[in-house]
Amino acid sequence: MKRLKMTRLMMLALVLAPLTSMAAAPQAFNFSCASIGGVNSDGKGNVWINGAKATIKSFNENYWEAKSGKNTVSISRKDDGNPEVSWAGPNRKHGICQPEDNVDYSPAKKSANAGPSYSCSAVQKGSAEDIICQSPSLSAMDMKLNGIFKQALAKSKNDPMLKAEQRGWIKGRNECWKEKDNEPACIARSYNERMTELQNKWGVK
């Protein structure tokens, strides 16, 4: 009887374990952490440190540690829902990471205008567009780039060359699938580079 009860408890633990790990994942974000580079989360339990996939350990539903090489990133979810990210590296170096995009995860402040700039209803599953739709951080970056591009287009007086450049950039962004496990970080990098390029060339914000 005791052995049967123990077996049932073990089976229950095995069933609940993956559910717990799925629930306890940091939200999607895109942070910059000084000398160790960028830190990206896809919101599904995957974290990248400077482009390298990290090993992540969950301590509870609001705190995680991600490790890659000699660098450790601490991730916590604040009471308002926003992530707080800090890092520690060799030689006792450490610091606070800063968000790369203006995304507010506070439940009261979420809106239908959070992005992306296109409809997610017809995107192909597993495509770059789908990954962007599933990520609040990447969706916000898409909305921001769309605004910057519209400003640049207005300044250029609807220059056909600029439109062609943007179409070419989208094709390049979609090539991030070649980076496999690193795809969300590649997409974020692509957005940041394009926004910087347009801002510098056309003097827009």
From TrEMBL:
Q: Pfam families attached here? A: LprI
Residue ranges of domain Lysozyme inhibitor LprI-like N-terminal in the record: 120-198
Q: Which GO terms describe its cellular component?
A: extracellular region
Keywords in UniProt for this one? Lipoprotein, Signal
Q: For the region Disordered, give the residue spans.
A: 74-113
User: From which residue to which does the signal peptide run?
Assistant: 1-23
PANTHER family hit by this protein: LIPOPROTEIN LPRI
What is the protein name given in its UniProt record? Uncharacterized protein conserved in bacteria, putative lipoprotein
**Which lineage is the organism of this entry classified under, starting from the top rank?**
Bacteria, Pseudomonadati, Pseudomonadota, Gammaproteobacteria, Enterobacterales
